[in-house]
Design a protein that fits this description.
Chain lengths: 275, 494
Amino acid sequence: MNKIVEKVIFSENVTKFVVEAPEIARSRKAGHFVIIRLDESGERVPLTIAGSDPEKGTITLVVQRVGVTSAKLLEKNVGDVIKDVAGPLGTATHIAKVGTVLAAGGGVGVAPLLPIVEEFKKAGNRVLTVIAARNKNLIILEEEMRRYSDELIIMTDDGSYGQKGLVTHGMESFINKEKISEAIVIGPAIMMKYAALTTKKYGIPTQASLNTIMVDGTGMCGACRVTVGGKTKFVCVDGPEFDAHQVDFDEMLLKLNAYKTEEKEAYERYLKSKN
Amino acid sequence: MENILEYLKEERAQAWRDELRKKIKSKDRTAIVRVKMHEQDHDIRSRNNLEVNLGLKKEEAVIEAQRCLDCVTPTCIKGCPVNINIPKFVKKIEKEDFLGAAKVLKETNSLPAVCGRVCPQEKQCEQECFYTQKLKLAPVAIGYLERFAADFERESGMSSTPDVAENNGIKVASIGSGPAALAWASDMARFGYKVTVFEALHEIGGVLKYGIPEFRLPNKIVDFEIDNMKKMGIEFRTNFIVGKTMTIDDLREAGYKAFFVGSGAGLPRFMNIPGENAIGVFSANEYLTRINLMNAAKINFDTPVLSGLNVAIIGGGNTAMDSVRTAKRLGAEHAMIIYRRSEEEMPARIEEVKHAKEEGIEFLNLNNPVEYKFDKNGKVTSMILQKMVLGEPDASGRRSPVPLENSEYEIPVDTVVVAVGTSPNPLIPASVSGLKTTRWGTIVVNEDMQSSIEDIYAGGDIVRGGATVILAMGDGRTAAAAMHKNLAKKLLTK
Ligand SMILES: Cc1cc2nc3c(=O)[nH]c(=O)nc-3n(C[C@H](O)[C@H](O)[C@H](O)COP(=O)(O)OP(=O)(O)OC[C@H]3O[C@@H](n4cnc5c(N)ncnc54)[C@H](O)[C@@H]3O)c2cc1C
Ligand code: FES
């Protein structure tokens, strides 16, 4: 049982939760995630840890509405509990002083990117950040990102905020300006696919943090398997970060839709149950 | 060993045993036909998830117990990995002291209701039974009787929580909550230690919960035992991944004096053939976990599962049988076992194979998948199979399968479950420096189940690779005895 101690609504579909989880708060590093289960009948879903406060014993999760579980979670309030929170899982991001780091986050992917940007900055790197979303309302954590970035570009698809265009445009404007040592991209699979193609064009080593379907999150089931460099890898233990140029994003995109019908049905059932 | 034999002899010499032996002539005993287990009808059971075996009636159990000859040298005990005093508990049943029978079981086996259901008795105690060995008759149904006594005790409401020694204040912990860890924990609690069981998942029980299906081992039976253990003062922490949530070093700092690693063989193996990552191809662990742990097949649970009409299970072990029978219960028209050897080599329990056949499972033995084909959405649509023949015996003593040239053919499938084995869970070996492992990733232990690090013991599948519930429990008990001896020397005599 993990209590929600703070809730900040970023937009209609994106909310930040601060949740009690003292042990996880102490052991987590940038790049780790947790698996949560809301209640007895809930499914197990992974959420990246966006930050933590070891003193207070809390972790921060940023949740975007995608299906039943996230929708149910968004309805929770301060004082409510999440039945199960297990973690920290995955392999932490390898943080080192490499020079100039280009960080690109799309949509809710900006949340897991934040701790990584923070760590790269603290490790003495120059950090150039692009955050992108469909429109102004969906841009999150701008202030926090700005704090740890040397430069920040905001991109929106409709031009309602920052510059109009895709995340890759923002990335290229940095790439054309200065030498980038390393890039990290986090966001929807389709965004990471194109972001990876962009950095590949310029020969910039790039990590992508993958958000596959998971069940246990401990390497026990293989639901999270992806093909990286022609080999099968388990995202929950071997990742979530991989060499973006080696990831088979097309396969991953198909797999993310594996339960589309079931999820849609479940979501409709959920909406009905509320009326 | 000397002591044990001596002990068994003394027990056998007791008046009540002698009396029972005299009551019925051996020749009348051997004339009794082995009891048949009551089962749900196969047509009905393949459409529900309720337990297939229904147990024995009292009278049946007593008659079956009469078959046992109470041998001078009970070879059956030798076949039992935890050396249950088999004649004693069987004779207690004959005497209609069912609670007494359960008590005998519990002296050496903390989960008799589980073992009575899932042990491969035909390869253990029943294999060594005098009936099998000398009379060439069906063995005494030791497994059924074990189950009977344990169920009787549970249902009587008079189940006793084992006595625990006075708390000695020493903290010890297990990593994992499968049968190995549970057996270890209950012994350590009895010795008086303050025991914590750390489990990564949200449920206690390991494979007993997430793997073995309800129709073979109902969860309530496992939960009953866990509740009993809670009453013994054992603390269970779910959602706690040792090595991640806290490391063994952190736990040492928090005052834990010794550890038992029972983290299992959780890592599913795949065959690395083309198309294996297609949608609809699962590991058995994923398939069974979605259904057993997450209740995916039930409408009011959020976890989905894809289970189609043409379901192929790759493998011939218990996991494969559990998966294929689950697929049938989820509505498959063709629930198929694809196994590369012949039925004779199948590692599954004989009862599982028999039940599967009765339920209409199709067996494609001497077949091996070489490729999966999928549609534009990435969903599996068919598989290419290759026929096999049996060649020379391999290292395991089983005849090894050899592919038959140009024998490939294609069959339609919409769900595939890969059940070709699991590897040891790498989490603990990876997070504890200096812990010696084999090249298969199992933890190296001595005869006390102690690892290369003094305060870390290990047992079950993490030591043996995929094994059995009873071997895992045996390991847990061996480790507990040795750990207790060591800790008592070090800490209690100060
Ligand atoms: C489908 C299936 C059917 C089977 N049928 C039979 C049968 O009929 N008869 C039989 O005898 N055997 C059977 N077996 C084999 C038997 O279940 C295993 O041999 C036995 O469960 C092993 O016990 P264990 O305690 O070593 O580990 P497990 O039961 O695997 O339990 C290990 C537990 O440790 C947890 N864990 C792992 N790492 C960590 C960590 N770092 N921190 C915290 N927790 C951790 C895991 O989540 C898991 O719950 C079957 C196995 C399967 C999969
Ligand atoms: S989520 Fe089960 S193995 Fe990764």
